[in-house]
Structure formats: C-alpha cells, structure tokens
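Worked example

This section walks through a single chain of length 218. The input is the sequence exactly as stored; nothing has been trimmed or padded.
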Amino acid sequence: MNNIDRYDAYIQTHIKEKDLLITQMEQYAEEYRIPIMESVGIESLIGLLRIQKPKQILEIGSAIGYSAIRIATALTETNVLTIERDVERYAKAVENIAESGLTKRIQIIEADALEIDLDKAYIETFDALFIDAAKGQYQRFFEKYTPFLNSNGVIYCDNIFMHGMVLREDADVPKRSRTMIRKLKEFTRWVMSHPEYDSVLLPIGDGLLIATKKQEIL
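Given that input, the structure is written out below as tokens.
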C-alpha cells in the first residue's frame, strides 16, 4: 500500500456513517459494476461544493443517481439537473431519487447529453457543471455545456486518472481503452491550458479536475 492509499484509508475512518439508502446504492453499484464516485472523492466534491454554494448544478452522467442524491442531501439549497442515457440506470436512478425524497430538487432526464438541447424548459443557466460520463467525450461535454455557466461557474470532472491508466504508456493500456485514455489525456492538457479557465488537477479519489471561469476584466 502506497502513501496515497494509506491517506485514503485514513480519511475513510473519519467519514460519517451513511444512511441505509446510500449504503444500499453503494452495494448495488459494486454488485452490478456500475461506476459511482469513490467515498473520498464524493466527500471531497461535496466539501468543495459547500464552499462554492451553487444554486443550480448540471450533472452529466447520473448512473443510478448516487452523486446527485449525495450532493442534494448535503446542500439543502441546491437543485440538481442530471442527464443519463442508459435506460436501465436511468430507471434505477428515478427509483432511488424517489426513495430519497428529493424529487423536488433533483430533476433527471433520460437522454444522450451530446444530443439533447437544454432549453428554458429545463434550466437557463447553472453555477456548477459536474462531468462524470463517457471519459472519451469529456471535451465535447465541456464545450457543449460551459456556455450555460454563470460568470463565476465551476466545472468539476471526475475520473481524470481513470484508475491509473493515464500514467501508463500507450502500449501498456488495454487495447479497448487506448482511444478513450488518449482522449482523456488530450482533454486534460486542453483544459489545463485553456485561456478562459483557471484549472487545477487534484489527486482526490480517481482524479478530480476543477476549472473555474476567469472573471472578465472591464
């Protein structure tokens, strides 16, 4: 076990006990191999969002509703609009959101986030964008949805390390994942050098990239 793993294990011992629904969702995700944020990652994201205090969050990639429920539970003044294209995961997310009692503050859409048009029927602008969907499409998600960000908006991108695969040489990455990993690396370089955003890459969970819109100077 390296130091980062030891730190994560230590942090885990200080995470508050989770309620039954959250525990059940984590068990379901593990059993059916559905990717959800790691405990340290989601706790860190929630901490950052508590500082930011966004009123409206757009999440790309609902999965079974885990992150949306965790965020809405922790930030009681925040509304979440979340998009999921997988029919089965969408149905499970709807079920979980209903059980959480957060249907008034979490709106979920069954759609491909790259194809749907967000109009005023959903939301006009939002304060935070959370990208946690197809890793090879992160740049397309970023470019499509950042125009809807408010002037002080923040983008959070999960799985930037992709279980350590971004650290490997191309030949050492499984063939089925090589294109995705290349695109994820390209996206990371692109965002980190983007002239309109101040960005930071943090070794939290599976890698969390945070991009903050620069303030316009009048």
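What to look for: The chain has one domain: 16-213.
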